[in-house]
Amino acid sequence: MSGKGRSPHKKKYRRTKRTYKHPNPLFEKWLKEWQDEAERRHSNMKYNFQRARKSLKLFPLPLYSGKDCKVLAHFGDKICQLIDQRLEEYQEENGPVNWDEFHQVQEEPQVKKRGRPRKNTSNSLDGSTETESRLSGTSASLQVQEKKGKSPGGKRGRALTCRRVNTRR
């Protein structure tokens, strides 16, 4: 074997996709509380908190502070400042935050995507294509027409077009 090939003894590794079930549950909980509070006070801030929660839900990575939230849409200085203050209060009450406890990781091996199966248009002995013979038992059948002019490949000549025709009446 040449030096370029793989040795048969090496183990193949697949890339694993790391996803989070719920990447920022703590921040989302606080935003929901603030949204409910604003709703009780009939404040229009409820819409801002609602938009911020939605963009936080759509963000797939974990965030660790209010400053990190600044990159998201609908997170202004005020909301980021509120998150930082609430995070400090939380750390005073409960000690340092164990982020691994909040960020639930799912590791999935990446699945190889398969392409669409090719259609076999070879003719059988009776002259009908495979698709026609498959559909002949159903209520629909294919009608093949010849057209003169340009074919789909761009060359002049005869082109075949297939059209499905309902036979049920």
Automatic annotation (TrEMBL):
Entry-linked InterPro entries: DNA_pol_lamdba_lyase_dom_sf, HHH_MUS81, Mus81
Principal localisation: nucleus
GO cellular component annotations of the record: Holliday junction resolvase complex; nucleus
Annotated stretches, region: Disordered: 95-169
Molecular function as annotated in GO: 3'-flap endonuclease activity; crossover junction DNA endonuclease activity; DNA binding; metal ion binding
TM annotation in the entry: none
UniProt enzyme class: hydrolase
Cell compartments where the protein resides: Nucleus
Keywords per UniProt: DNA damage, DNA recombination, DNA repair, Endonuclease, Hydrolase, Magnesium, Metal-binding, Nuclease, Nucleus
GO terms under biological process: DNA catabolic process; double-strand break repair via break-induced replication; mitotic intra-S DNA damage checkpoint signaling; replication fork processing; resolution of meiotic recombination intermediates
Residue ranges with Basic and acidic residues bias: 100-111
Gene3D superfamilies: DNA polymerase beta, N-terminal domain-like
Coiled coil ranges: none
EC code(s) of this entry: 3.1.22.-
Cofactor: Mg(2+)
UniProt cross-references to Pfam families, sorted A to Z: HHH_8
Residues in Crossover junction endonuclease MUS81-like HHH domain copies: 23-91
Ranges of compositional bias, category Polar residues: 120-144
Keyword DNA-binding attached: no
Stated family: Belongs to the XPF family.
Function recorded in the entry: Interacts with EME1 to form a DNA structure-specific endonuclease with substrate preference for branched DNA structures with a 5'-end at the branch nick. Typical substrates include 3'-flap structures, D-loops, replication forks and nicked Holliday junctions. May be required in mitosis for the processing of stalled or collapsed replication fork intermediates. May be required in meiosis for the repair of meiosis-specific double strand breaks subsequent to single-end invasion (SEI).
PANTHER family for the chain: CLASS II CROSSOVER JUNCTION ENDONUCLEASE MUS81 (PTHR13451), CROSSOVER JUNCTION ENDONUCLEASE MUS81 (PTHR13451:SF0)
Protein name: Crossover junction endonuclease MUS81
